[in-house]
Structure formats: structure tokens, C-alpha cells
Amino acid sequence: MSANIETLITDIADYMSRVGLAAREASRAIGRASTAQKNQSLNAIAEQILAQAGELKRANALDLTAGREKGLAEALLDRLELTDERIASMAEGLRQIATLPDPIGVISNLAYRPSGIQVGQMRVPLGVIGIIYESRPNVTADAAGLCLKSGNAVILRGGSEAVHSNQAIAACIKHGLEVAGLPADVVQVIETTDRAAVGELLRLKDSVDVIIPRGGKSLIERITNESEVPVIKHLDGICHVYIDDEADREKALNVAFNSKTQRYGTCNTMETLLLAASAAARILPDLAKMYVEKGVELRGCENTQALLKDSNIAVLAAEEEDWSTEYLAPVLSIKIVEDIDAAISHINKYSSQHTESIVTENYTKSRQFLREVDSSSVMVNASTRFADGFEYGLGAEIGISTDKLHARGPVGLDGLTSMKYVVLGDGQVRQ
Amino acid sequence: MSANIETLITDIADYMSRVGLAAREASRAIGRASTAQKNQSLNAIAEQILAQAGELKRANALDLTAGREKGLAEALLDRLELTDERIASMAEGLRQIATLPDPIGVISNLAYRPSGIQVGQMRVPLGVIGIIYESRPNVTADAAGLCLKSGNAVILRGGSEAVHSNQAIAACIKHGLEVAGLPADVVQVIETTDRAAVGELLRLKDSVDVIIPRGGKSLIERITNESEVPVIKHLDGICHVYIDDEADREKALNVAFNSKTQRYGTCNTMETLLLAASAAARILPDLAKMYVEKGVELRGCENTQALLKDSNIAVLAAEEEDWSTEYLAPVLSIKIVEDIDAAISHINKYSSQHTESIVTENYTKSRQFLREVDSSSVMVNASTRFADGFEYGLGAEIGISTDKLHARGPVGLDGLTSMKYVVLGDGQVRQ
Questions:
Q1: Interface test mutation site (partner A, options B356, B373, B404, B406, max chain A beta carbons within 10 A)
Q2: Is any Cβ of chain B less than 8 angstroms from the Cβ of A256?
Q3: Which one of A51, A263, A298, B114 has the lowest number of neighbouring Cβ atoms within 10 Å?
Q4: Which of A404, A414, A419 is the best residue to mutate to test the B interface, defined by the most B CB atoms within 10 Å of its own CB?
Q5: A37-84 per-position pLDDT tens digit
Q6: Measured in whole angstroms, how far is the alpha carbon of residue A340 from the centre of its chain?
Q7: pLDDT tens, B60-77?
Q8: How far apart are CA A186 and CA B395, in angstroms?
Q9: Interface pTM (ipTM) of the complex?
Q10: Is pLDDT larger for residue B222 or for residue B290?
């Protein structure tokens, strides 16, 4: 399918500019669509995805074959694969989005002013969202569903290795939009694998309101530097757990162990463990043993090495760059610090401002940590692995923003919206 | 004073980079400053401004003399002048900001999740804000006050024509910060008038979190195009009033007259009047007479010209470009449209998405207008002149954003903040 399309798209700039204009036009229709209509289309897409499971797997097989020929790594091939389970989970995800409350049109804080006017804020769509992502084809359905529910038109640009899978999912989406009487251009999946299409998308500042990149750090940095459209970024997660001297021992072991080992490859996984000097002797030897038994490589500061030497636990020397490395692997750096102030300083210096957690029973220090740590999620006595749209009750997430402007932390439906002011009067004028 | 400073600042890039680093450093102190400390400094700055009124006027006189020598327009000289009244009003503005509730640290929506963790959002400062503005020196005090109260460090870059006035105000701010024990670098007023400083400021993406330009359209467009730091823009205001066929006649006359004539040079002034065909005959002749008596030049569509010809009111023919012109002057374009749908189409095509108002008694059409008009303020039966931070109850405003990301409409203290997630647990881990 794509080969055929490729030959038709010779002028990428022109093609992308038409995609942008079509999205802007479609955004008006989806922006004013009723909740029922949006939910109907989400459920229809889910149904079609299940009905077309065979077709999706056939298209996916083309991508997998091409990927193997190109020598894609096994991990990437795994992410690329559409199994029956993954197809069912895509459909289920769309149905869940249909059950979420519609954010659009919600009016808050409507209050009378001394002049007699009533002023409030109404939640509205952003307009047109561009999403650039890598190999997982399920993002095509997830992102389309979130944008659709939040009243936005979306331009999706998936990885070239998933082009057949993405086009097959796009066909299901098109069908679902049609069933609900919505324009097909509400969701456009870029049909060319030409990399120039990404560059053109980043220049469409008149027809695209925001770009959301999903993928590795280098992809996101490239997009951020190149884009003329505002970007909601999700950079790396260098997350910390700080075990305070007043930490409960059991909570410390549980939180620190879970934060590192529950999954290694996720951005909310702890990469550096900090311990108050007076807590280290009490907690670190047992905790280090748990990590080692789980197969986690430890890299520690000098005090950590000295302390664990007595317990015969091998600890490599942590280098300066360890403190700013996102391992995404069974590797953990450990530093013993003087107190909470030193811990906060270390975090605010090395953290990627994603997620940090303190383990403490002390009321004042818990408040200090919450207030002074400048990260998108700050926790007390909880695993960093909770930093997630589902766990936070957003229902779904399009990513986790490490930006401060607009959206910070897990981005759900509200993050894809804006607020306009509404004013209700009885003929009031300014004096 | 500035001449002396100029000779000291030879390497602008180095100077601005040091300003940026000092701001980042100071942002940590102001970010965790107590409400009492912030209010104390605001009141101390206000006091110092009043105590130094003589000094401010002496510095201002240097700017006025230089401005006259350079042949600045009278309107600009007027904006530049610091009178006793304006000095008192600067001080009063700062005291008002001190009385506003502190937005920082406010936690909202703290709720238990099925996992047992409690999740909420805490309001936090953005960090470092860069403000680039033109001749009015009072912006120096206003903007410093708003940034200070919202826990941000700020870099202020005023117009070169106000350099002595701005430095004199900066000295008062420095004194007030010192009185409250806050670092002087919380508010830095750029000391050089070299235009290269603006370009350098726009490149400080590691030490500045957001740029807010205040000034004419060309300044804002230049900054937006050039900036590597995110920008909160306030572009032009091409505002509309639509008089529906079910409008109350008296409300229509009042709202449409006030929206145009209460002040001509403001961004929330109406520039185009739309009337439903069936309302025009009933309302337009008298309304047009009111405008003409007030000295407003009218430019109308063909139907407007035909209708007002019978009343002997002179109406120029509106050209296509009139519909997208911000006159900022006693000029009004008028168009008779078929119905509300045509009015909304016209607005969504030509408006700058600032402020639009409908005059109607019809419930369904008021709801349609509120929902479908894509502007930062949408009103029913109220003058567009109400689109203002004070009128909306924000207490103060740093500008009116015509962007959709982050802040839309009047930007008060909340617009200078972000939200981080806070998670309170009892040792919970992810399953």
C-alpha cells in the first residue's frame, strides 16, 4: 500500500501543507462535535479494530518481515508486533476513553464581579495536534482516541518501520469517524515514509497548534530544536528516591526496591538512590542485597562503597556522569548525603525534573521535600513508578511532560485542551 | 548612569549569560520564599518608590529630554512621562499585588486513588521569566511585582528611551528586596540599551523559562520568530460585537457603543461590528448616528452603505483588508450578515481570537456563540472592554494572551505559574 502511495507523493511540502489545512478545517467540526458523537466514533473504531484483527496482523506481518530484513533489534521487533492481545488492548483503550468525562465545554469558576458581569473559564480544544512517534503501532489508536475525545484534529506521523500497521489502523479509524458522521480528516496518518515529512510538519505553525513527540531522547531533542510549532516535550527520567534518617525501614526497602526493579525501561524508574548518612547503615546493606539478588548492578559514592564492603557486596565506583545518566537498565547509582538539604540540592542539580520520592516519617521534612523539589511529580512514601496517567486517575495519557509551560507531568485529556474566558452579562458596559 | 554602564558592558553575550545564571540562582530563593517575605518586599518597594518620587522624576526628565531631542512622537512622550499620579499608582499597584492570595504551594484536587496513594497538584513558579517591553516605565514595577509574588525571578528589558527611569525604579526594587532579605537578582533590569541584549536574552533557553513581550505587533512578531525560549504572546485585538436579530435594542446600543468608544487605543476595543440582516434596520441607523456624533469614521459593506444612505450617514466602502485591521482609532468597520452562523464564520476567519461579544436575548444562540467562537474571551450582552485582568478578578495582569498553550486571555498570577503533581503515600508500591 505504502509503495503505491509513495509514488504519488512527490512534493512533500505541498502534501504536508494540504494535510495541515485539512486538519485545521476538520478541527472546527470535531471542536463542536457532541459528546455522544465523539463517543460513538471511539466505540466504532474499537469495534472495527477487533473486526479487522486479521487485516491488522497481515499488515503488521509486512512490517515485521521488512524489519527483520533491515536487521531491526529484537526489542524493536517486539514493540512493533501486533498480537491478538495487543489488538484487543487497543480496542479496550479506545472504549475506556469513550467512558471518560468529556472535558470540552466544561465551565469553571463562573462568578459575579462587582460590575455585574459573570466571568468563568470554558475548557476548549487546542485545535490541531501533531504527534511524532516511533515503532509501537498502538500509539496510532491511543493518540487518535485522546485527541478525538478532547475535540482536536490530529496529524499522526509514526515510524517508517510501522507504516503498514499504522495505515491499517488508520483505515479502522477512518471507518469509525464515518460511522459517527465526523470528517475523515479529524485523524490523518501521514502516508509517506519520507523523513522530509517530519521537517515539513514542524514548519506548519499556521495549521498546527502543538507538536507532541514520543520516542527516544535524540528524536525529541531534534524535534524541539527544529520545530517552529510549540512542543510539549517528554525528555528523560532521571528519577530519585531519598531515604531520610527518619524513614520507616520497611517502607524504605519496599519503595526503593519497587522504584528500581518493577520495570527497568520506563521513564519513571529510579536511577539514583540517595540516603541520609544516618539511615545508610540501618537500611543500605539489606537493600543492596535485594538489588544484587535481583541482578541490579550497583555504582556508589565512596561512602557507599565503604559501607557495603563490610557486607561483601560489590559496588562499582560511581563516576560524575552516573548522576546524570538514565540507565533504563538494571543499573543503580547510590549516594550517601548529609541530610535532606543535600539531597534536595543533588536532585535539583542532576534530576531531569521527572519524578522524585522521599521516604520519611517526619512531617516537616515531607512538607519541605514537596515544596522544594522542582520536578513534575514529587512523592512521599510512594514508588516513583506511580508517576503515570492511569495511576493518577487521568484515565489515559499521551505522555509525561517534563516541561513547565502548559502541561507538566502525565498529560491526559485536559493537557490537550485550553481554557477560554466566558463572560455573561445583561448589557453591562465599562465605565 | 547608563552611559557609564554602557562602557562597562562590552561583551553583551557574556553579560546576558551572567544575568541568566544569576536569575536561575535567585529563582530558587524566591520560589521557596514565604508569603510574608514576598509581601514585605512588595510593600517595601512601594514605600521606596513613593520616598524616591523626586529621584524618579529627575531620572525620567533625562529620558524625556533625550526623547524630545530624538523627536519622539507626543503620544510616546506621554506614555514615557512619570507624573506624581503615575508614581503613586505604581506604588498602589504593588500594594494591591501584596494583598492578593499567594498562588504558590496551593494544592488542589488531592484525592485518594484505588492504589491507596493520594494524588493532587501543587501550584509552583515557572522559574525565570524574561519580559521585553516598550516605553511605559510603570511596567518595570508592575511586572516585577507580579513575578515576585508568583515566586519567579525576572529579567526585565525595557525600551532604551526609558532607560534612566527604569534604572531608578530598579534601584527602588533592589532596596525593597533587600529589606525583606531576598536576593537582589530576583529582579534584574538590563542595564545596557544595546539591542543585541534582546537577541541574547532570546537565546537563554537554559536559564529562562518563558519570554513575555509587551508592545506593538512588530516587536512581538520579531521576538516570537527569533526566540529559542517559549513565548507567551499578546498579539493584536481585532474584536467583534455581533448584534443578533433577537437582540434587546437598548443593550445592543449600549454594548456596541461602549465596545468601540470607551477607549480607542486598547486591544479589547471592538474593530468590526456585525449585525444580523433583520436587526440592522431596527438598530443600525441610531447606532451609526451615535458613532458619527462621537467622531467615529464608519466603513461598511454594501448593505450597510445602502441602509445608512437613507439616514444620510456617510459610510465609506469597507475593503477586504478592513475586516482584518486593528484600527486602534475612531474607525469602525460594519458588516451585515445573514445570521449567527455567518457571524461566527466571519469571526473565526478574521478575528485575532482576542474578544468577541454577542448581543441577544435568545438562549440557544447565546450558548452556540459561547461554544463555537474560538477566542480568548467570548461574551454575551457585555462590552468587549471588560476583557481585562482587573475586571475578571485576577487582581492584576501582565498581558492578554492570544495564544492557546499555557495561558489564554488575561494573564494574572496563575498564568506565571505551573502545576506539579504531589503524591502522598504510606509506602505503596506498583504491582
A1: B404
A2: no
A3: B114
A4: A404
A5: 999 999 999 999 999 999 999 999 999 999 999 999 988 899 899 999
A6: 29
A7: 999 999 999 999 998 889
A8: 39
A9: 0.92
A10: B290
